Amino acid sequence: MSQPVRILSRSELPPEGEAREAVCGARTLCIANANGEVHAVDNVCPHRGGPLGQGIVENGNIVCPWHAWAFNLKSGAAEHSPLARIRVYPVHVEGDDVLVEID
Ligand code: FES
């Protein structure tokens, strides 16, 4: 059972259309703001390990800064192949806290 963990405060969220990296315990996640909706996904790109939190947000995808693989922020699926995917974590914004469900 996953417990919601505080990862950021609301004021630390990336602006609309941007992403950032955020450390949560032993993990670093990519936090992205797509159309005002906050998403939390793996930060490590499954291609060659690029930092997705340093990528750009485009059409509901996070685009890796290294070789431009694009992953849907809701499903985690890569645009070019259903076999490549990243993990998506449920996010809740409660008051000033941004919580992520991590197991
Ligand atoms: S490392 Fe992400 S696309 Fe290559």
From TrEMBL:
Listed SUPFAM superfamilies: ISP domain
Keywords: 2Fe-2S, Iron, Iron-sulfur, Metal-binding
Molecular-function GO terms, alphabetical: 2 iron, 2 sulfur cluster binding; metal ion binding
Rieske domain residues: 5-100
Cofactor entry: [2Fe-2S] cluster
Pfam family for this entry, one: Rieske
Similarity comment text for this entry: Belongs to the bacterial ring-hydroxylating dioxygenase ferredoxin component family.
Stated name of the protein: Rieske (2Fe-2S) protein
Organism: Silvibacterium dinghuense
